Amino acid sequence: MPEVVPFRLTRDVVDGLGISGYEGTFIRASTFALAVFREEEDTISTFLDVLRFDPLYHWYSISDPYR
User: Fold this and answer.
1) Domain coordinates in residue numbering, the chain
2) Alpha-helix runs per DSSP H in the chain
3) Phi, psi at residue 43, to the nearest 5°?
4) pLDDT in tens, 1-57
5) Given Cys at both, which of 4, 12, 22, 43 links 26, Cβ 3.0 to 4.6 Å?
């Protein structure tokens, strides 16, 4: 069954963020990243489309025995 929640902030991750937990740097960095993604949506989409439709790159599984 696929994950319903796109991201799980577990206690282990919060402990790794240090004394401020998720209230400090994590929220500021996440907010900044989301703002940049929204402002540069067209640029990011164009870049990802180039990667997705590149005819020279083969998308295959690492476990593919025929690669």
Assistant:
1) 11-52
2) 11-16, 25-39, 41-52
3) -65, -45
4) 666 777 777 888 888 888 887 788 888 888 999 999 999 999 999 988 888 887 676
5) 22
